[in-house]
Amino acid sequence: MKLTIKTLFGFEDILAKEVEALGGEKIEKITRGVQCEGNPAFLYRANLSLRTAMKILVPIYSFRAKNEKQLYDKMMEFDWSNFLDVDQTFAIDPVIFSEIFTHSKFVGLKAKDAMVDQYRNKYRRRPSIDTDKPDVLFNLHCANDSFTISMDSSGAALNQRGYREEGHRAPMNEVLAAGMVILSGWDKKSPLVDPMCGSGTILTEAAMIAMNMGPNLKRKEFGFRTWPEYSPILFNNIKNEELGKIRKPSMDLIGIDIDDSAVTLARKALGKIGLRREVKIKTMDFREFKPINDAGTIITNPPYGERIGDDILEFYKTMGDAFKQNFVGYDAWLISSNKQALKQIGLKDSERIKLYNGKLECDFCKYELY
Questions:
Q1: Interatomic CA distance for residues 172 and 139, integer angstroms
Q2: Nearest residue to 156 via CA among 67, 82, 54, 37
Q3: In this model, does residue 307 exceed pLDDT 80?
Q4: Contact at 8 Å (CB) between 80 and 122?
Q5: What is the 8-class DSSP label of residue 132?
Q6: DSSP collapsed to 3 states, 163-223
Q7: pLDDT digit string (tens) for 117-131?
Q8: Are the beta carbons of 327 and 298 closer than 8 angstroms?
Q9: Running DSSP on this structure, what letter comes out for residue 163?
Q10: Contact 236, 165 (CB under 8 A)
Q11: What Rg, from alpha-carbon coordinates, does the chain have?
Q12: Hey, what's the torsion of the CAs at 15, 94, 155, 359, to 10 degrees?
């Protein structure tokens, strides 16, 4: 079975290594993703345990179309009944990179019309559309005049681990957080501190990495569970194998945030996946925190300036001063879209990696604190 596994920009190498470790074959890196081959067991395992995957797609049909009539006709040619029962609901998720087809919603509607008309012609009734929780989710990818239709085996994006509490103002994408921890080279043993932890996403992902806990083992819904060939027995066997890999090492993970409501959210999220005792979360100003260890790693997502306004440059200077005074011997990793503010840290970065936090282009910078 051929698979296309999507990720965030900058994580292609990490994802390829993850896929190889889980048993994927014929791995090829693409922009924001990896293509590989694997059997159903690998598909289930990948959805449960890949940390930097956003979606796992199974391509089923490719064609070319230069206008809407050709698109409709090509969609009508394919027998969709092998993948979608007339009594099931479905949705189409269009991703368009084309000068010919410029409106993704229009392309999705045209493709949907063709599918529905095929069922109506064949059965005199049609499957219903459900954009919220469809039984079958199709991904439509268009690059100029080249189309690929895939079955979305994940359903909701895989960053939706199920531990996040509602209410945080600007939560970090879980895949971004996991990728940052991996890119930092943290050894899973030394202290890890997030001095502006918010709802604790970085620390939660770090704890799961240290424990070898698959990020979606607590998740109940996957797209493949409604497929005709889905095997509950095989899935449960794979899930039990992944649960058996979890270990309980001694960890020193500390989160700090001045916002007590954010700290409460972080504790609730950790409790949802049974990590409440593994991570220490404190309400305090990070400038007042002094670690007891001589070495460790800082990974944090400070404000970029949207909320602090004109004081952002001074804030970054203060942050740099606090790190230099209180965290001697540590490596500090910061992600920020504010290049001017990063210059106020007062240290030269030893590594700088381009990432995206949502639509914001960011630098993920490493500072060695002597």
A1: 25
A2: 54
A3: no
A4: no
A5: S
A6: CCCCCCCCCCCHHHHHHHHHHHCCCCCCCEEECCCCCCHHHHHHHHHHCCCCCCCCCCCCH
A7: 999 999 999 999 999
A8: yes
A9: -
A10: no
A11: 23
A12: 50
Compute φ and ψ for 271, nearest 5 degrees. -65, -30
| Tokens found for residue 124 | 């005199």
Contacts with 78 (C-beta within 8 Å, 6 or more apart), sequence order: 61, 149
Q: Which amino acid is at 75?
A: M
73 vs 146: CA distance, rounded Å: 14
**Could you report how far apart the first and last alpha carbons of the chain are, in Å?**
50
- Whether pLDDT at 310 is above 70: no
Q: Which CATH class is domain 174-212+248-368?
A: alpha beta
- The contacts of residue 113 (CB under 8 Å, 6+ apart) are 72
pLDDT above 70: residue 306: no
Q: What is the structure's pLDDT at 165?
A: 67
Q: Which tokens hold the place of 175?
A: 């895949």
Instruction: Name 321's Cβ contacts closer than 8 Å, sequence gap at least 6.
Output: 346
72: tokens are 């409709």
Which range is least confidently modeled, 141-145, 185-189, 252-256, 309-313? Answer: 309-313
Looking at the structure, give the CATH architecture of the domain made up of residues 2-152: 2-Layer Sandwich (3.30)
For the chain, the domains span 2-152, 174-212+248-368
Which residue in this structure is represented by tokens 């500090």?
Answer: 332
Q: Which two tokens stand for residue 353?
A: 């990696």
What tokens appear for 257 in the block? 């945030």
The pair of structure tokens assigned to 364 is: 């993920």
Beta bridge pairs of residue 91: 137
Query: Has residue 136 got a pLDDT over 70?
Result: yes
Report the Cα 207 to chain-centroid distance in Å. 16
Is the sign of the CA dihedral 211, 214, 216, 219 positive or negative? negative
How large is the average pLDDT for residues 79-100? 94
Cite the beta strand spans of the chain per DSSP E. Answer: 2-6, 25-30, 33-37, 55-64, 89-97, 128-129, 136-143, 146-152, 192-194, 253-257, 279-283, 296-300, 330-336, 351-357, 360-368
Identify which of 307, 301, 302, 267 has the alpha carbon closest to the alpha carbon of residue 283. 267
Q: How many CB atoms lie within 10 A of CB 310?
A: 7
